[in-house]
Structure formats: C-alpha cells, structure tokens
C-alpha cells in the first residue's frame, strides 16, 4: 500500500478500512465477532462488542488464535472467516452463503468466475515470458467470507501448512467446499489504486445496508 501503517488502518471516507468492514458485519447481528490484529496494534472496540486476539505469523495462525476464543462452541457451529480489508462485501452475498451451506457438513465460500485470460509465466532474473495460456473455464477467484463447520475448520488448520485461505486447508483434508457466486465489487484492498475503487463501491452500496 506504500504507507507507514498497516493497510487495514488506512482510511476511506474518514474511517479505517477495518472500521468499514466490521460495521458491515455487525449490522448482520452475528452471535460473536472476533478480530485478529497485530499484537502491537491491539485495539479495544467496545462499541462493537467485539473480542480481539493477537494475530499470528500467518493467516492460518491468526484464525487459529481466533478459534481459541470460541472454544465453547460445538464442532457443528458455523465459523465465518472474512478479510479485514474487504470492506465492500454485500449483505446479500453473506446471507446467500449462509443459506446455501446451511444443510452441509463442511461449508463453502464466496467466489467469482475468472473472466480474464490467464497466462502461465516463467521468470528468469528480471525477465518474464509467457509459458502458456491457462484454460479459465473451470477457474474461480476465491473471495471471503468463507464459512465452515468449526470442527472441520479447526482440524484443517491444525494439520495444514501455510495456506492463502481456509478453503485450501479444508480441501487438503479431502473435502470439496461449496462455491457460492459473490459480487465482483467485494474487492480486497491491496494496492493504493484500490482505495478510490473501494470508496466508490462503498458509496454506491449505501442503499443496500
């Protein structure tokens, strides 16, 4: 993000990205909300009634830390994991995910079909060349939230190596999580140019919330 602070604390429309994300989740009145944050940047968020836990060295470790706060929940309980830097998630998408996985034993994720032409690249030194074109017909880009039974998620993360999302860990156990189509405006704020786009989406979505 080319800033001196972590991207979840960068402001959009006068509020941090994390504030926008938490506010959207809170409006859906979840039973519990747990936020994993860097230990040196722990925040108290009493206005939300949110638990905070220290983040880990990786995404996997952070989610495991959050699950420890929820150890009173049974293995069949639903755990939803969402990126703090996806402030534009739509309530309708979250509710659709919950509805479609409700009767499943494992869970599922929000995702969108890949629409761009994908190139496999080989890099040598500072030079990259196309090594082939990837068939995109069966490819989807994973989003969050990702929603899983607590027992499945805990087992998957405890046995997994480094993963980029929870579904990858669950897949490693041999499960096939459900794909629920989400919205393309559910962007992950990663680069400076994403800030203006997120601000635009937030303004356009106000009526939904």
Explained architecture:
- By secondary structure, the protein is α/β, with parallel strands linked by helices.
- The chain has one domain (7-205): Spore Coat Polysaccharide Biosynthesis Protein SpsA, Chain A (Alpha-Beta Complex), CATH 3.90.550.
- The protein has 6 helices and 10 strands.
- It has helices at 17-26, 59-69, 91-101, 150-159, 166-172, 193-205, and strands at residues 11-12, 15-16, 34-37, 51-54, 78-81, 107-113, 118-124, 127-134, 140-149, 178-181.
- α2 crosses α4 (150-159) and α4 crosses α5 (166-172).
Annotated CATH homologous superfamily: Spore Coat Polysaccharide Biosynthesis Protein SpsA, Chain A
Helix and strand run: EEHEEHEHEEEEHHEH
> Uncertain runs with pLDDT below 50, 5 residues or more?
none
Largest sheet: 4 strands, mixed
Mean pLDDT: 92
Strand content: 15-25%
User: What share of residues is helical?
Assistant: 25-40%
Q: What value does the Rg take, in angstroms?
A: 18 Å
Enumerate how many helices there are, as a single number. 6
Number-wise, the strands total: 10
Q: What is the architecture at the second tier of CATH? A: Alpha-Beta Complex
Class by SSE composition: alpha/beta
CATH level-3 fold name: Spore Coat Polysaccharide Biosynthesis Protein SpsA, Chain A
CATH uppermost class: Alpha Beta
Secondary structure elements and pairings:
Blueprint: E1 11-12, E2 15-16, H1 17-26, E3 34-37, E4 51-54, H2 59-69, E5 78-81, H3 91-101, E6 107-113, E7 118-124, E8 127-134, E9 140-149, H4 150-159, H5 166-172, E10 178-181, H6 193-205
Parallel strand pairs: 3-4, 6-10
Antiparallel strand pairs: 1-2, 5-9, 6-9, 7-8
């Amino acid at each position: 993000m080319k800033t001196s602070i972590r991207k979840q604390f960068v402001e959009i429309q006068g509020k941090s990205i994390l504030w926008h994300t938490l506010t959207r989740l809170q409006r859906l009145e979840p039973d519990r909300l747990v936020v994993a944050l860097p230990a040196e940047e722990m925040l108290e968020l009493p206005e939300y009634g949110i638990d905070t836990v220290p983040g880990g060295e990786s995404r996997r470790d952070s989610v495991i830390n959050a699950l420890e706060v929820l150890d009173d929940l049974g293995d069949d309980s639903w755990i939803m994991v969402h990126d703090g830097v996806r402030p534009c998630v739509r309530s309708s998408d979250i509710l659709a995910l919950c509805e479609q996985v409700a009767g499943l034993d494992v869970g599922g994720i929000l995702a969108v079909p890949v629409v761009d032409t994908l190139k496999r690249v080989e890099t040598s030194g500072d030079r990259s060349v196309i090594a082939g074109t990837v068939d995109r017909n069966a490819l989807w880009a994973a989003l969050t939230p990702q929603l899983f039974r607590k027992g499945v998620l805990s087992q998957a993360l405890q046995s997994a190596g480094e993963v980029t999302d929870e579904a990858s860990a669950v897949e490693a156990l041999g499960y096939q999580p459900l794909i629920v189509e989400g919205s393309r405006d559910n962007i992950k704020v990663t680069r400076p140019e994403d800030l203006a786009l997120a601000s635009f989406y937030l303004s356009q979505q106000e009526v939904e919330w």
